[in-house]
Amino acid sequence: MSPNSSDTGHIWALLDKVTSSPALPPYIAAVAGTPSGAAGLHGWDVLLANPPGDLDPDVRRRLHELAELEAAWPGLAHGDRIVHGDLRADNMVRDHDRGVTFVDWAHATTGPACIDAASLAPQLVLAGHAPADVARLLRDHPATADSPDTTTAFLAALTGHWHRNARKPAPPGAPGLRA
User: Which residues pair with 81 in a beta bridge?
Assistant: First the structure.
C-alpha cells in the first residue's frame, strides 16, 4: 500500500466493485448473525468527560466537535453494502495474476459503503501516503463521496475509539498494541 505501489489502485478498484451495489440476499443471510461492531465505536465522549493531560492541543480544542461527530455515527451506521469490517494491509493478499484479494472475513457484515474505504485511511497514512492525498481519495471514491457526512462521522468514531484504547494498559502478550 505504499505510495509507489500499484496495489493502492487495485485496492480502491476492488472496494468500488464490492460496494457499488447492495449486498445480495445470500451474503445478507450469511452475515445476519454477525452484528457490526462499527456502530459501537466511540472514545471522544470518554475523553471529553475527562481530557487527558497529554492530549494534543488541537484535538483538545476540537473535543466537543469530535464528540458530536462521533455521537452522530450510530444513527448512520446502517446500510445494505458489503462490509469486510477489518480491512487493513494484513487482510489483503496480492496475487501476480489476480491482483489484490481481501481475506479474513471474520467480521463481515452489512453497512454503509464508506466503512472499509474510510478504515483504510489511517493504513494509507502509515504506509507513507500524504494525508492530503488520502483525503482526496476519500473525497473522490464512490464508496465515500456519496456520503461525506457518514464518512466523517465514522472516521470521528474510529479515531475516538483508537485514542481511548491507546491509553489503556497493554494486554498480555501484545506489548506494542497500544502504540
Answer: 111
Q: How many domains does the chain have?
A: 1
Q: How many distinct helices (H) and strands (E) make up the chain?
A: 9, 4
| Cα–Cα separations (whole angstroms), residue 93 to 11, 101, 109, 120 | 10, 5, 20, 15
pTM attached to this predicted model = 0.89
Is residue 149, in this structure, part of any structural domain at all?
yes
Q: Please write down the long-range contacts of 90-99, taking CB distance under 8 Å and 24 or more positions apart.
A: 92/7, 92/11, 94/7, 94/10, 99/10, 99/14
Residues near 73 by Cβ (< 8 Å), separated by ≥ 6?
A: 39, 41, 42, 153, 154, 156, 157
**46-99 pLDDT, tens per residue?**
999 999 999 999 999 999 999 999 999 999 999 999 999 999 889 999 988 888
Check if the beta carbon of residue 67 is closer than 8 Å to that of residue 159: no
In terms of residue numbers, what domain contains 142?
A: 7-166
Domain CATH code at residue 37: 3.90.1200.10
| Within-domain flag for 1 | no
- Whether residue 93 contacts residue 104, with contact meaning beta carbons closer than 8 Å, is answered with no
